[in-house]
Fold each of these.
Amino acid sequence: MPRGSRVLSLVAAILALGAAACSSGPSASSSPPTSPSPSPAVTPIHVLMITATAGFRHDSIAAARELLLSLPASEISVAATEDLATVRPSTLAEFDVLMFALTSGELPFSTDQKTAILDFVSGGAGFVGVHSASDTLYEWPEYGRLVGAYFKEHPWTQQASLIVEDGSHPAAAGLGDRFSIVEEFYTFRENPRPRVQVLLRLDAASVGATGDYPIAWAQSYGSGRAYYNALGHFPETWHDPLFRRQIIGAIRWAAKR
């Protein structure tokens, strides 16, 4: 065969193989591309924040509400109120956490409302109490069990050191071994340590004292969770990044998130 004819024959063969490859379907091992699965939507934690008072009223209530209401609603959605009529089973069913922030005195809850609060938490929801939440409802012992201890006195209002007992807990994570803050430091009628998991305690030496003074703690309550933090007297405390970290961590922990 002449050389030119051989070249033409080779080109024709290559073109024929290319056409066959283009016209063939996908191999048995190939699969069509798939779109990535969308991330599941994150359901926000719903918090009912009560700041009602029947005794001493803290100036820091406004700062507390400001902090909680400034949180991203897509993560933590807060309804702040002083209308105690909202505390009933049908309303609580819409929330994950009940928060008593700077409450005081004998709040006029009915027997049914008290039952609703205990059922809400023991049924699997969360409770968060802050500062004078322990100076509230002395005549309702079951509430004392829920908050962990009742306020006795505040002998030190100054800068002092707090010792972090369990930095692995979400409400104490990122605080280091200790930190310093200006606060009104509470003592309690009974030391809650035998009944709760203490997260923070006052460094007694930093106020010239001795003894064991728990400041923040967590506990199980039936199928639910309860947290208390004695800090929060001053508006400045609510603007403190370490305190903010504790409250957000406590809400998430109480809501089991």
Amino acid sequence: MNFRPAFLPKQFLNCRFDESCALRWKGRGARLGRSLAFLALVLAFTSTLFAQANNEPAATQVPAATPALAPVLSHDLSGVWMPYSVHMDGIDEKLRPPLTPWGQARFDAAVPLVGPRAIAGKENNPALQCEPEAVPKSLVLPNPFEIVQIPGRMFMFFEQYHLWRTIWADGRALPKDPDPTFLGYSVGKWEGDTFVVETTGMNDKPWVDSYGNPRSEQMRLTERYRRLDRDTLEMQIIMDDPKAYTKPWVNPPQRFKLEPGWEIAEFFCVVDEENSYGDAVRKPAGVAPAPK
């Protein structure tokens, strides 16, 4: 196959063996060369003018306009986030509203791992049987989670137990009667610079915190996310569960730090390992030392 450069005119190809035609093209080439030389001179002169303008005293120059901060950052929650709060303050038990009779019965039956109601060897936190902590508890535990956004959807990947969660952000409404699950059904939308997540359809198996406070299938969970700056994410948890609490439980915002160099590690719950750890470490640590 013969190769023909696309920039060669057809007329030149047709007359490349005709001397008079070749001379005409030679003349045109000379004129083109002169034109290019003149253009180069103009560009050089223009560059000199720009250089002189840039060397003028600062007082004579018009300052460049500072570009407005793009709103992309506030609407981008992506990244690996870590809570560094000592007391997991995203859910504050001191602000818990009064329990209903159903909620009180569930709370009384719970024997937590921490707090004044803990009893060594008697703890019955569902997580000890490798049941998912789920939301909202997974949001405040001292383990990282990663947020990944795509059009119409946001994913949350929790390091603990390798949970992953979908939050639909395509304008859909919450389902009328979803089947109860550990993570429920979540939809989110932007209200200014705040991403508001609503979740329903949760079962009543996990606790909402480490102290044994319950949740029921009537819970409606609200999360409000706001990126304060590149490295700081703020989240507020509001729980409205009329079966368990007499009024909504509104918690103060909790902050998370961006960890750009982290990756979510493997963290699975294995019942045999959990039991071995409990027998060897957790239960003995909870027993008061014998008096001397």
Amino acid sequence: MRITTPELVLLLIIATLGHLMALFWYLAVTRNWRICERVIYDLPISKEQIRRELRNSLHAPIHALLLALLLYLGFFKRAGWLSFVFSLVLATIWAEIWHYASHRAFHLRWLHWIHREHHKSHLNSWLTAISFSFSEKLIFDTGYLGVLAVVDHWFSLNVFGVGGWYVGYLVINSFSHANFELKSQNYNRGLGKVITSTTYHSLHHSRYTGNYGLGTRVLDRIFKTEWDDYERLYDRVSKEKRPLRRLSEKILPATSRGQTESNLISARR
């Protein structure tokens, strides 16, 4: 089936947006743009990490190729604004569920080889958001598009809703893998109770587990996989503008810190 010009434009955007966002962050970091003021981890990133991530990014556009194949086979051809909104909402909900489920599965010992390449980056660079093994990209994209293709068989979906999620994902995921906090100081008092931040995902990379959610904290809270000092660390980075100096650095609750200090004083006496 023929791919239309608007669909081709969408596919080109999806294929290149990840690298365009990486270029954006490269310029931001090298030119010290204002958005880089609130550093999360004040630690160096090696040249070897950058070279490795650049190699891994070469197969990042696989999602565009898979979507193009499905379009060619006749999937996602429903038109209209209502179908666009429905498809986008469905795609967003499914992507959040699939990402959390697959992400946690990839951290199982017998499946971690799939996810290991991405986790070699304990610190996030301007390329980390598009640095995955070929296997991980293929599995995630197949799971995301495959289920939507099954749904499309019964309830025809709109390609601009399905592909629109990819556009939002590539932008948001790029920001989530930056080493700089961009949200407001009081973010976690409102929208941040549900939506993640850059600091949120940075903890997953530095600590290797926890904070598995893609765009929301919902599933991490339901399954108790969220780091309990996340909001305190966020305040340190965002409000106090004091970056973390060690990958393992944690912040205890105020009462615990007081007890620890009291125990230290007693021990000295």
Amino acid sequence: MPNLTPLTSAFEKLTLTAAIDILVVAVLLFQFIMIIRGRRAAHILSGLGVLVLAYLVSVWANLELLRAILSNLATYAGFALIVVFQSEIRRMLARIGRRGSFGLRARLQSRESTDEILLALGRLSERHVGGLIVLERDIGLRTFIESGVLIDAAQSRDLLLTIFEPGTALHDGAVIVQRDRISAAACFLPLSMNPTLSRKLGTRHRAAIGVTEETDCLSLVVSEETGRISVAAFGEIEMDVSLKRAGERIMQHFGRRWSAWSHGSGAAKSAPTERGAQAEEEWREAQE
């Protein structure tokens, strides 16, 4: 039998405080790994791992010149890591501090506001008009709101359709919605640099993903070429969804049970008749 004395001694020294300490560190490391997975930061960490391995080899093999160079580089490693990983660090801190992680989620003030968004998406999809709508949750989007044109108007499908009308001054960029009000239009959003994304995704879709990588918002996209609707959240995008699925994603994201277009909803009763057979079927199913 192997000698288990060291292992038994280690378990005897494991206190509740030490267990909590280990658990917190493990959670932080897991969050960091999930954030950098599939991104350029992962390749940078691989390069740093190679440098650390080279330093260990230089110490073991008495390679004084290589060891001295790597030792001097290590002095500035902390500052270099902050500069290189600034976006990843910001994203990790936002995820840790996000109130939604502890079950406190922002809610849309009314079902009608969701209906108005879905009606606008359906009309844009039917006409093959590109659009990008960002719904704010817990993390504020003021930085992106200030990059666009302030509106601060009650949310309505007519206003959304007017904003995205081709040829108008505000049709480019994103519309940002705070609760049930349209805060700004023609907003500039950061583009996702995730190398795993399909190269077929255009600027509008990459912007929709990019803003969800830095905040906990939800992005709704309508493709100008195909008219297909996509939903992005937490750095991931779901392509080619139906209006019903888009509504489900909105309700799930904001912590509300899906109950779209129920009986008595004014938005349901005013569904446009020219949406086509498939869209009309979705409306009927939602009302049943």
